[in-house]
Amino acid sequence: MTPEMGPAVERLVFLLSTGLARGAVLALFALSLVIVYRAARAVNFAQAAMAIVPVYVAFAVTSASGSYWLGLACALVTGALLGAVVERWLLRLVPQDNPLPGIIVAIGLVMVLQAGLAIAFGPDHRPVHAPFSQRPFDVGGVSVLSPYDLFVLIVAAVVMGGFAILFNRTSIGLQLRAAAFAPETSRLLGVRVPRMVTLGWMLSIATAALAALLLVPTGLGLDPHAADVLFVNAFAAAVIGGLDSPVGALVAGLVVGVLASLVTGYASAATAPLAVLALLTVVLLVRPHGLFAAREARTA
Amino acid sequence: MRTLDLKSEGTKLLLRAGLLTLLALGATFLLDPYRNYQLATSAGVFAAVAGLTLLVGLTGQLSLGHAVLMAAGGYGYALTATWVAGALAGAEGEVADGVVGWLLPLLAGVGGALVASGALGLLLGLAAARLRGPYLAGLTLALVIALPSAASTIPGLSGAQGISAPFVPVPDTLAALIAVEQWHAWLAIGVTACAVTPLVALRAGRAGLRMRAVHDDETAARLAGVDPGRVKTGAFVISSLAAGLGGVVLAIVTQQVSPGAYGLGFSLLLVVAAVVGGLGSLGGAAIGAVLVTLLPWVVDQATAGLPADLGHRLQGNLEIVLFGVVVIVVTVLWPGGLSRLLRTKKRSKKTQLSQNTQLFQNTER
């Protein structure tokens, strides 16, 4: 960082570093969508609503006990439980031969959860405080990441590293992957496939809850729809990355986060959703199954 | 078999459509102004839900963004109608009155709405032709989320505040007979009839057969000479046009178009209406549309007596919880929705038997 950098470069550095932090949250949420897609071969359209319920739990626990970390732990546990309950008691009842009933049930779940939260906690935005300062560091006269952004990046990196080890280096991870790719063969080989699907849902919703919890202090505050835009952006990232690929979700999440930050900084905040929509449309038209995915099957 | 005798089928269909429209027009005389306003609103919602249910039920493409297509119709109507009304006033030096004063802007507005919603529907349809279930649903969801941004970015749409649509006054010859709400209900019924009748014809005719063929097995349809891409795109455009006309109705009734009225919540309500009525059933769409228009009002009435804080929390949320529960229950226990239920009640034992054999064959496959 040299002192003769102009204000234009300073601005660019600031936008890039903020975009990276936002992108890390996006990548986490996109990863949660990928995990559930790998487990159940379905996009969970209720992910935003299911992620925001644990955030409310964290909010309640933190305001009661005063500890952010206790709230965070409760959010992860609630997320995992919610994932298990929804998978076992609701989605198993839905016909699996085509994706439509699953999506429609997810939409019903979104309505129940979000409106239920609004009834239970009232319609107002609740301010949420970050555990670290959100004022950016000053590096050689250029403002870059804030301590909170740094915290977000570290948490995201740790979680992703953890998942990489879990999926690639452990027996559970092998069973999870086997159950997702070849359920019948795995069952013959002694993998408890339904249990693996439930585990996938638990991991996915806990991750999504973590992402939503990290996002909320940087936004307007906590309300039942706080994660809706996050879901749409993360869906775009997951699709761009190929839905099946954790690495794709990570890369695409960071790309979408930086893109949204740059568009917000150079055009306006209102233009960012349009940019994401345009990116999603272009990628879907060029590669309908995403950039990193293998082709599914011949159609004709 | 149903498509063979197209001519007499067509006449019958038109007769039935005309009869139903007349019946609806007659019913407006029995309703007070507020009920007529609700009737007009449900008619607009019905047009959009009819388009959506045809799309989802026959081709299996789920759109979560039909509210945006309605908004496109509404904006197209408001902009064109305002412009034509202004041009007429400018040409004559004073506000044009008589039939021309309102009919010309109305017709031009409907044309504008069809162009706007049709163009957006064509773009989406081209994407939809290449996409399957979750991808299309996600793309249309992103579209709904981007609507407020689009409204504030595209010049002339005035952002969150929205634009106003010209007021359509009661014609002089009818002024003594009916109130403005009833007149708007008439317009709403007329526009909705124009939107839904072609859908009924398409569904019963060759196009409906093609859509079902593509939905059931794309490869088989392609081998039989049906182009799945074209069928899917066409279905999306037709569905969008119906939604656009629904947007026209709401613009006429409320005299304004704003992005807030066509948000995610409303878009999901359209899906709810289609699911509850039974995907693919146009009669079911009518029931679903009335339900999503009236239930919020019923809940408001019911919660009015509660203490202020509780009432405030329940308002606008309780009905959403109910709708969510209903959608889940219908999808899990009762696929086919209300229309299927009504039909099976009427069915004789014999057809039930043949249906059972059919079911058996399906599971065997």
From TrEMBL, chain B:
Transmembrane parts of this sequence: 12-31, 37-56, 68-90, 102-124, 136-163, 183-202, 235-254, 260-279, 286-308, 320-342
Entry keyword set: Cell membrane, Membrane, Transmembrane, Transmembrane helix
**Where does this chain mainly localize?**
membrane
Which top-level group of life is the source organism from? Bacteria
CDD domains referenced in this protein's UniProt entry, alphabetically: TM_PBP1_LivM_like
- This chain's protein is named Branched-chain amino acid ABC transporter permease
Localized where?
Cell membrane
> How is this protein situated with respect to the membrane?
Multi-pass membrane protein
The family database entries (InterPro entries) matched by this protein are listed as: ABC_transp_permease, LivM-like
